[in-house]
């Protein structure tokens, strides 16, 4: 009896699911993330300075 080789199908199914999930993901520009982190840090620093003077 011949053996059935299904390893190719199983491995490609995982890759296809990964790429399908990648297409539906939200894409955010890295510059936006860095700018948001810097703005949030500046806000926290500014609030710290403001409330330490009181």
UniProtKB/TrEMBL annotation:
Q: How does it assemble?
A: Component of the protein translocase complex. Heterotrimer consisting of alpha (SecY), beta (SecG) and gamma (SecE) subunits. Can form oligomers of the heterotrimer.
User: Where can this protein be found?
Assistant: Cell membrane
Q: Name one GO cellular component term.
A: plasma membrane
Ranges in the topological domain labelled Cytoplasmic: 1-29
**Keyword annotations:** Cell membrane, Membrane, Protein transport, Translocation, Transmembrane, Transmembrane helix, Transport
* Protein's UniProt name: Preprotein translocase subunit SecG
The coiled-coil segments of this chain are none
